[in-house]
Every structure is written in structure tokens, then in C-alpha cells.
Specification:
Length: about 350
């Protein structure tokens, strides 16, 4: 009896394991491109061909699709004329695809990616349309701002990445497919977020009403210039965001000391506003922990809070996250970003 029960349980386990295995295989088959197949063009990692057809995959390794990325088979492909143009574009004799999505009303015969990476055919420049209604294919559309097909180019790179919201041709600069009134020949990005031409300083600012990014003219260009994070030195002026917060002073010191926090000469600013103005001796102050700890001979501050239990005159840093005064050792707490008091405090032996 026991042997029969054991055999029965063994069969049940085998059947369950088989069902689970089949479910996993079918799920992977539907969720992942199986079999992997071979690259259509060895220069690009996004277009593959297997026994089921040609597919696009946005990641180099299929298992990455579990966390991010997309893939899909291309429909109605003429494999004899299919050509990969770059990692996002492909075409055959009569169709053009962006990823795995068919782009309609394109002249496939003349469609190509120019030397700058711009998608064009004989009549149109094709752009990423960020005002799309949700359909992926609606993100690609012909430009409506009259960009010259022959001279269209990308020219703005941020941290090494092409910013496809910016384009120019022989005459104009375009931002999100809108013609701007900047000087075409001198307009350029400086730092990560600022732009200048020969006349002005600019910043892109989000417009909540239109839910779009606008290019705003902030100030007439002066020299010298120094871009920072949120702050910009423009000759004798200092800009924060889209506002000039200091005008016409001799700037001897322009230094970032923390997120949103800058020193301008002997003035300290946080998010564009004077900070600890009448409390801290800024000229002789020392800053630690991403600028959140500020000290002078008489005070120690954590953000806006004065830490009265610390002897400021003897307070000094021992290592990255350890400090001392004459009586105590202070160690930065692990969750100090959320605390009003940043230290674990221990009396010296």
C-alpha cells in the first residue's frame, strides 16, 4: 500500500512539475523573444531575426526585459529589402519602422538617417512628438515648423547624450519643434542646464499651464560666465533659476557647497534666498556633509537649526562622517537626512 501511494504521489508531483514547466515556457515564449535568433546587422543590437520573423528589442539581453525595455515583431516585412538604419530605425522597400512600430506616410525610398542622426525623407524631418496622445507611433511625426531637410541636425548634448528636443538647420534653432529667436550660429549649451548665445543667457523652464518646456531669456550676456547647478554667474550678476538674484557686484567667490546652496562672496544662499544671514559668520565659516553642517567660531548649524550642545570653538572633523569637540565624539547617523539632529553622540573617555 505504501509503495502504491508513493508511486501515486510521484506521478502527481511529476504532473504538477510538468504543468509548471510548460506554464513557465509559454510565459517566457510570450514575454521574451524565443528563440533569440541572430542580429540582422552586426553593427546594431536591436533588430534580430529568428524562425518567427524579425523583431526589435530595446535591450541587449532578453532577461533585462523583466525589469525594463520593450520588444515586438515587425509586421509585413519584406526581408529581402529590410535594412537596419540605426538602433531605433529600420526600413524595407515600402515601410519604415521606429522600433517595432510602423511609421505611416513616409517616403521609404528616400528615408534615411543623416550624418547627425536626424531621420529625414525627401520632404520631411521626423521628430519625437512629445505631445502624443499615448500611441507609441504618435511620438514620431513630421516636423511642423519648416525645418530644412538638407541641413537639419542635432547639436545639443548633455552629459554625452544627444538631446533630441533640440535641432537646428542652416537658419534657425528649434526646441520641441518650435522655432526660437536665438542667434543660430552662437547658441550653445553651457554646463548641464544653461544656454547662451552671443547676446543672452537662457534656461528651459517647465510651463505648468501648457505642460511643456519653454526656452526663457533670463539676462543679457556678460563676462566672465560660470554655470552651476541652479545658479549661474553672469559677469557681475548671479542668476538662480529664471531670476537674477544679485546685480552689479564684484564677484570674488562663486562656490557650490550643497544641493541648492551657494556662496557668493560672503553671502550664503539656499534655493536662491539668503540663508543664515544674521546667524553665521559666512566669511569664516566651514561647511561639511554636503553643506548641511555649517560652523564658525561660535556656532554649529545643521540646516537651519543651531546645535547648542556642541562646542563650536573646538568642533572639527576627524573623518568623513566623524567629528569631535573637547568633550564628545559625533558620528553622522545613517538616516540623518530625515533627522533634525544629525549625530550619534558619545562622551570621550
Amino acid at each position: 500500500m505504501k509503495k502504491q501511494e508513493l508511486k501515486m504521489y510521484s506521478k502527481i508531483v511529476t504532473i504538477i512539475a510538468s504543468i509548471i514547466g510548460l506554464f513557465v515556457f509559454v510565459s517566457l515564449y510570450l514575454v521574451l523573444p524565443i528563440p533569440r535568433g541572430n542580429k540582422v546587422d552586426s553593427d546594431y543590437y536591436t533588430y534580430y531575426k529568428n524562425i518567427r520573423g524579425i523583431y526589435y528589442i530595446s535591450v541587449e539581453h532578453s532577461l533585462e526585459l523583466i525589469n525594463h525595455g520593450s520588444w515586438g515583431y515587425l509586421k509585413d516585412v519584406d526581408e529581402s529589402t529590410f535594412t537596419v538604419l540605426d538602433n531605433q530605425w529600420a526600413k524595407d522597400a515600402t515601410h519604415v519602422w521606429f522600433g517595432d512600430k510602423l511609421i505611416e506616410n513616409v517616403d521609404a525610398k528616400t528615408f534615411h538617417i543623416n550624418a547627425s542622426g536626424v531621420a529625414v525623407d525627401k520632404d520631411n524631418v521626423y521628430i519625437r512628438d512629445y505631445s502624443g496622445s499615448g500611441s507609441y507611433s504618435s511620438y514620431i511625426s513630421p516636423s511642423h515648423s519648416g525645418i530644412d531637410v538638407e541641413t537639419a541636425e542635432y547639436f545639443v548634448y548633455r552629459l554625452g547624450s544627444k538631446q533630441d528636443e533640440w535641432m537646428r538647420d542652416k537658419d534657425y534653432v528649434y526646441h520641441y519643434d518650435k522655432r526660437t529667436d536665438v542667434d543660430r550660429n552662437s547658441f550653445r549649451i553651457i554646463g548641464e542646464d544653461w544656454f547662451i548665445d552671443k547676446n543672452y543667457v537662457y534656461l528651459t523652464v517647465y510651463n505648468n499651464k501648457t505642460q511643456a518646456w519653454d526656452l526663457c531669456r533670463i539676462d543679457s550676456l556678460q563676462h566672465p560666465i560660470e554655470p552651476g547647478y541652479c545658479y549661474f554667474r553672469n559677469g557681475r550678476n548671479v542668476i538662480y533659476g529664471d531670476s537674477v538674484i544679485i546685480r552689479d557686484i564684484d564677484i570674488r567667490r562663486f562656490e557650490e557647497i550643497g544641493v541648492g546652496k551657494y556662496l557668493v562672496n560672503d553671502m550664503l544662499f539656499l534655493n536662491g534666498e539668503p540663508f543664515l544671514k544674521d546667524s553665521l559668520d559666512v566669511k569664516n565659516a566651514t561647511f561639511y556633509f554636503y553643506g548641511r553642517i555649517a560652523t564658525d567660531k561660535h556656532h554649529v548649524f545643521f540646516d537651519r537649526k543651531q546645535l547648542d550642545d556642541i562646542n563650536a570653538a573646538t568642533f572639527r572633523q576627524i573623518s568623513d562622517e566623524v567629528f569631535e569637540d573637547r568633550n564628545y565624539i559625533y558620528t553622522i547617523k545613517e538616516n540623518s537626512w530625515k533627522e533634525e539632529y544629525p549625530f550619534d553622540k558619545k562622551r570621550k573617555e
